[in-house]
Amino acid sequence: MSEAQPTKKRRANFAMLNREVIKPGYCVSCGGCEAVCPVYVISIEQLIPKLVGGCISCGACVDICLRYKQRKEQPIYDETSLGEIMEIYKGHSIYGDVRERAQNGGIVTTLLLNAMRKGDIDGALVTGHINDLLGPVPRLALNELDIRKSARSKYVLNPLLIKLTSIKLSHKDSVAVVGLPCHIDTLTNVIDKKNLGADHRVKYKIGLFCMSSYNPRDFRNILSQNLGLDAEELTKTDCARGKFFFVAPDGTTDIKIKECAEAKAEGCKYCKDFSAEFADISIGNVGVDDDSNLIIIRTQAGKELFDLALQENILDVEKVEQDKWEETLAAALKLSSVKKRTTKSLPPIETN
Q: Could you write out the DSSP letters of every residue in 14-67?
């Protein structure tokens, strides 16, 4: 009887990433794969990773992909938890101009501005825009003006992490990264793999609460066809109480979030992380006033960033004592639980 031949292990390369993540529609367009490719042959085109040269089968793109990791490890998600928590605050920036331009309480922008002024960071990876708020552009902010220009939330897909290479090439060694849960999760994988020197170049991971991102083309169509709005005329977008709010020179228009379901990005339908649980500090607008932020400090790094701003008296915030955590976090926990329970589960990878 002949001996069974051992199964040949498939090489980790872009073809594997394409087969297991991109083609099935699991990709979230975070940009991580483009950033870590050592021979620059992965390019995010129309929000889809494409191979534009010869793959050397190093496996870097597979190693950091959050969706591949989910499929491989099949993690269990605790619906009763928002992740690690050290401290909780709620409040807003004291800067009126920041609150006017930024989202809700302006805490994220204020933390970045203060850290830049103090020399605590030498750059910030943020999301700006060129033509309109539905055309997000990843940006490595190198000064206060760059940070201010990047204020305001954008609710569409954004390959933020493609700019990780800019951090390395510009020799920055103390950068804050502001991203959605998918960006923070992938960035954590990049740091764990010590790719691009991210383990010593990224000082702070600032996560934003997120239920879902939307396909920009489909979102524009909804605005145009359902609301008669031109995305280029928008001055601000917001999300609260189950609605999107779009501010234009002639007033504010709203639409129920559920009416935008057809524009929801396919890859987001598999996301289980609402509150950016792998961030150093997570910030959103849930369970607080419309002009305020809920701030969850998760790590010592997050505490240092926040304390630096507290010392300058530029935050009008209230610390939530631990016996009030359950009450304060009730709304956020409800949304997080809904997201973990209702989003689709990724099928396991059947072969190596």
A: HHHHIIIIITTT-----SHHHHH-TT--EEEETTEEEE-S------HHHHH-HH
> 213: helix, coil or strand?
coil
At 136, is the pLDDT very low, low, confident or very high (cuts 50, 70, 90)? confident
7 in helix, strand or coil?
A: coil
Q: Which helix (H) or strand (E) holds 185?
A: helix 181-192
pLDDT digits (tens, 9 = 90+) for 64-95: 999 999 999 999 999 999 999 999 999 999 99
- 163 phi-psi bin (left φ>0, alpha ψ -120 to 50, beta other): alpha
**Helix axis angle, 181-192 relative to 66-73, nearest 10°?**
80
Cβ 287 vs Cβ 330: under 8 Å: yes
pTM: 0.93
79's tokens: 């619906």
Which amino acid, 38? Answer: P
- Provide the residue ranges of all domains of the chain, joining segments of one domain with +: 14-73, 87-213+264-342, 216-262
| Contact in structure between 32 and 190 (CB atoms under 8 Å) | yes
Q: Which of 129, 131, 128, 132 is nearest to 147 (CA)?
A: 128
Fold of 87-213+264-342: Aspartate Aminotransferase; domain 2 (3.40.640)
**Token duo for residue 247:** 């501010």
DSSP label at 264? B
The fold of 14-73 is Alpha-Beta Plaits (3.30.70)
The fold of the 216-262 domain, in CATH, is Nuclear Transport Factor 2; Chain: A, (3.10.450)
- Mean pLDDT is lowest, of 105-109, 169-173, 235-239, for 235-239
57 vs 201: CA distance, rounded Å: 26
For residue 156, what are the β-bridge partners?
Answer: 214
